[in-house]
Design a protein that fits this description.
mainly alpha, 2 domains, elongated, homodimer, DNA-binding, 10 helices
DNA sequence: AACCGTTGCCAACACGTGTTGGCAAACACT
DNA sequence: AGTGTTTGCCAACACGTGTTGGCAACGGTT
C-alpha cells in the first residue's frame, strides 16, 4: 500500500520487511494470534513497532502476509495408486518440519476467524483439487479431502501444538508407517454401500 | 478459598457459581482463552465481573474449573475386539456433541500452555490407561493412544473449530464408517516389523 | 548543493483488559 | 430485634495493547 502494488523494482526496505515477516511467523507460531504482540515481533526484528504498521497496515494485515501458505502438493498422477497415502504423509511431514508458517496458521485458526477461514481455503482448494485429479464423484471427493485433512491436522496438532509425548517421540518413519494406510483408505477406500 | 474446602453443605451462591461456569465454558469454547473476557462471561451470567474473581480467584482459575473434563471412556473389556474402533468413535462423537467443555479445552490448548498441559494429561492418563487394559507392551501402548488421539482430535478440530465444510456436513454414521477402521488399526494393528 | 521521497524512531493516545477495595443490601442465627 | 456473614455492585487502578502523527537522518537525483 506504500507503492503501486505491482511495482517490481526492489525497495531499500525489503530486508526490514522480510525480517518483520520472519519474526511474525515465529511469534505467531509460538504464541498464537492474540498473544503475539506487535511490540514483541518488532523487537525480534530489531525495529520500531510503528514500522510494522507502516509496512503491513495492521496486525491483521501482518498476519495475512505472514500466513500466506502453499501446501506445495506434489503431482500425484505419476504415483503408484497404492502409495498415495505414504507419499502424502511424507510430503506433509517434510513440508512443515522447519517451516513455522503452518504451525502459525494452525495455532491462530483456533481463535482467529480470519485464520480459520484461510485454513479452510487452503484445505478446500489445494487439497480438494489434488484429490480430485484421480477422484470421480464430487461430494465424495470433498469428503475424502476432509477426512485426509482431519488426520493430517490431527497429526500436526498433537505433534506440534499440544505436543503429546508419544506423538513427539515417534520419528517420521514410524508416523508414516501408521498414518499412511489411513490416508490411503480415505483417498481410495470404497464408500459406504 | 471462601469456606473450608471440603465443606459439603450447599452455599447460597451455588447457582451463581454454576451460571458463571456455564457461561465460561461457552465463551471459552466460542472464543478461546484470550478472547473470552471476564467481562463478557460475567455479562452472560448476569453478574458483576468482580464476582467471578471472588469465586474463582483469577481468569486462569476460572478456566481451570471450567475445563475440568472427563472423557468417560467406557469399559472396553466386554467389547468385541473387532469393534473397538467403532465403539470409540461413537463414544467420542456422542461425548462432545452438546458439551462445550472439550471444544473449549481444544481451542484454549492452542494458545494457552496450561490448557495444553491439561489436554496432555487427559489423553495421556485417561486414554492411555484405557488402551492399556488390553495392550501389552508399554511404549507401544502410549503410541497407540497417541495415534488415536491424533485422529480423534483432528476430527474434532476440523469439525468443530475450523469447520471444514465436508467434515461438518457428514453425519455421525458416515464419520463412524470412515474413522472407526482407523482407530481399530491404531489400537490393534501389528506394529512395524 | 539543494531537493524530495524513504526509512526509522519517539512519544503519545484511546481503549480494553484482569484485578482490587469498599460499601449496601440480603440473609442466617441467636 | 440485633449481629455477623455472605452476596452483589460500583468505581477505580495499573497495565499492555494496537495504532497514530510528527520529526530527524539518510539516499538518490538533478
Amino acid at each position: 500500500m506504500t507503492a503501486p502494488a505491482h511495482s517490481t523494482q526492489p525497495r531499500r526496505s525489503d530486508v526490514t520487511r522480510a525480517a518483520i515477516l520472519q519474526a511474525a511467523r515465529e511469534r505467531f507460531a509460538a504464541d498464537g494470534y492474540e498473544r503475539a504482540t506487535i511490540r514483541a515481533i518488532a523487537a525480534d526484528a530489531r525495529i520500531d513497532p510503528s514500522m510494522v504498521m507502516r509496512y503491513y497496515g495492521s496486525k491483521e494485515g501482518l498476519f495475512g502476509a505472514a500466513a500466506e501458505f502453499d501446501l506445495r502438493l506434489p503431482d500425484l498422477t505419476d504415483v503408484p495408486p497404492g502409495r498415495l497415502g505414504e507419499v502424502l504423509v511424507r510430503h506433509f511431514l517434510a513440508r512443515w518440519e522447519g517451516d513455522d508458517t503452518l504451525v502459525a496458521l494452525l495455532r491462530a485458526a483456533s481463535t482467529n476467524p480470519g485464520a480459520a477461514e484461510r485454513m479452510r481455503g487452503i484445505f478446500a482448494d489445494q487439497l480438494t483439487s489434488t484429490v480430485a485429479t484421480f477422484g470421480t464423484e464430487e461430494t465424495m471427493t470433498a469428503r475424502r479431502a476432509g477426512l485426509v485433512a482431519s488426520q493430517i491436522l490431527g497429526l500436526a496438532f498433537t505433534r506440534y501444538i499440544v505436543r503429546l509425548p508419544p506423538m513427539v517421540e515417534m520419528d517420521p518413519e514410524e508416523l508414516v508407517f501408521w498414518v499412511a494406510p489411513t490416508l490411503q483408505r480415505y483417498l481410495t477406500g470404497q464408500p459406504e454401500s
